[in-house]
Amino acid sequence: MARSNLRYGLNKGHPTTPIPKAVRPSQRKGIQSARTKFVRSVVREVAGFSPYERRVMELLRNSKDKKAKKLTKKRLGTLLRSKRKLEELGTIIQESRRVGH
């Protein structure tokens, strides 16, 4: 609400211009920057997949989804991380099929 230089009421007070709040680093948490995305893609391209990721991809190709989920949950600690990893590896498998590799 704009202040109206009145003493009483909803709009009481000296009229001032509001200062916009600066975004804190804690409010940016979890947002991926372009640089981070690029660096991770380069590392993935150079280093490849870890042994457990290769095993999970093989399980997914052979439609052993439950076994793959159990393995990733054991390696990564939580079911949410496991689901994300399975989704990521599943998309990689689909892309490799689409390319015809």
Describe what this molecule looks like in 3D.
The protein is mainly alpha-helical and 101 residues long. The protein has a domain at 50-100: Arc Repressor Mutant, subunit A. The chain contains 4 helices and no strands. It starts with 33 loop residues before the first helix and ends with a helix. Residues 1-34 are annotated as: Disordered. One of its GO terms (molecular function) is structural constituent of ribosome. It comes from Laetiporus sulphureus 93-53.
What's a concise summary of this model?
It is elongated, with a radius of gyration of 25 Å. The relative contact order is 0.07.
Task: Record the SSE blueprint.
Elements: H1 34-47, H2 51-61, H3 65-76, H4 79-99
Helix pairs in contact: 2-3, 2-4, 3-4
Order of helices and strands: HHHH
- Please name the fourth-level CATH homologous superfamily of the domain at 50-100: Ribosomal protein L36
| Backbone CA Rg | 25 Å
Q: Tell me the major beta sheet.
A: none
Tally the helices: what do you get? 4
**What class would the helix/strand composition place it in?**
mainly alpha
CATH topology-level name of the domain at 50-100 = Arc Repressor Mutant, subunit A
Please tell me the overall pLDDT.
Answer: 93
Strand content: under 5%
What's the N-to-C terminus distance? 61 Å
> Which CATH first-tier class of the domain at 50-100 would you pick?
Mainly Alpha
- Considering DSSP H and I runs of 4 or more, what fraction of the residues is helical? 55-70%
Q: Low-confidence parts, pLDDT < 50 over ≥5 residues?
A: none
Record field, number of beta strands: 0
Q: What coarse outline follows from CA principal-axis ratios?
A: elongated
Provide the CATH architecture of the domain at 50-100. Answer: Orthogonal Bundle
GO molecular function, one term: structural constituent of ribosome
Region (Disordered): 1-34
Protein name: 60S ribosomal protein L36
GO cellular component, one term: ribosome
